[in-house]
Here is the input.
Amino acid sequence: MLDPVQIQLQPLGKTFTLARGAALADLLFSQGVEFPCGGRGRCRGCRVRVRAGLLPPTPEDERLLSAAELTQGWRLGCRAVAAGDLTLELAQWETAILSDDAPFEFTPQAGWGMAIDLGTTTVVAQLLDLRTGQVRGVKTALNAQARHGADIMSRVQFGLAPEGLRALTRLIREQLGAMVEELVTAAGLPETELASVVVVGNTVMHHLFGGLDPKPLAYYPFEPERDGWLEFGAQELGWRHCPKAKVRFLPCLGGFVGSDILSGILATGMHRSRQLEVLLDLGTNGEIVVGNAEKLLCASTAAGPAFEGARISMGMRAASGAIAEVTVGAGKPRCRVLGGADPRGICGSGLVDAVAAGLELGEVLGSGRLARKHEPWILLPPVQLTQSDVRELQLAKGAIAAGLRVLLERWGAQIADVRKVHLAGAFGNYIRRSSARRIGLLAFEPELVFPAGNTALRGAKIALFQAGDGRCEEIRKRCRQVPLGADAHFQDLYCEAMAFPEAGSR
Here is the structure.
């Protein structure tokens, strides 16, 4: 390499060698930095901080970052170039990606299998011994497609052009193939031992992995032309390390309700329950399932990214320096910061806690207005909550609460009839149930709400043992999607659910 430079990334403590003048985006992405706008220099989501060395601000830096931030060394990672030796602090860096180790029922089979949860942001793969059901290897990574947009619709927009779709399909197939190869090699398996791979994901991931045109998902009524099973031989995907493996992407339930939710139903067993249960996956697209052994209703609602800390003025993922928990003590907010580090932002669970605490302290009014009008509420300097932050949370929780009420009404039930609520995913694992109830997100008694972990991955493992038994198709036939966008009552309930409940009225 001619004229190399050294790039040190903190808090990873890793040093990399790049050619002088090389763009830093690929290196940063490989180490966990996400690019919410697809690396187009349109947002602030990929910020890095210069701790040593020189990195002159670009026009995009000067447009999107304040003078104070520029002085403190903040730059947009997607615009940065390795002009010299640098030490950078990664604002987004996080260590934990949710995997699953919960027990499940299975019938022993011969051979080995792989379960993959293909998320918009993260990918988790587990290698299983089908004779014992034991997990023999785990591999996690950021979704390689995220360099072309962090959210679902950015990914869809990029995939509308033929070359964009080909690029996204190639990226994810190559990434999953590499993960499979690493796990098989690490376990010392012969190439022919891996018999089956099950992949689950949302409808967009289903289309992009399968090379299917995402255009129907970009426009109303957002219904895919094809939402069924995708089946490939491993060699069709270019996975040469497991030539005899059969790769199945489980079918979607319709629209923006993908096979990750079908897997969630499998994992929770709610399709066999005699009592009424709810499955909630709280993300940018909040998915809701209401049902039991009699029938299942599902829906997707555009909750927005507030639960993931995005579109919040000081929002961040659950990483070192994030306020993840806020309680009330001695008339003041008490904040817990992840990693014991200096506070530098707030993640989704901390945001829900903060607003709940603000309601109790009178800092946030039932309408959602801050008590001090246009002044931000200081939680733990320099982290603060602004009026727009509260509004983002109201939009998110209003969409979920209204969607749930519509499904319950279609069912012919009420909140009081629900006997169990499964909260899927990372956010559901960390959210404080009392805070969710205080802000009106979950109007259930806390003892009925259970963090369910990564139900998508667990359901994929269950499906490994069920090839040909028709259980997934049975669930699909029993489950009916309710299009909330076409429901006039949803809009009324949405506006109503935006307000926060009065104290004591929950």
Q: What stands out?
A: The chain has three domains: 4-90, 112-249, 271-454+468-506. Residues 271-454+468-506 form one domain.
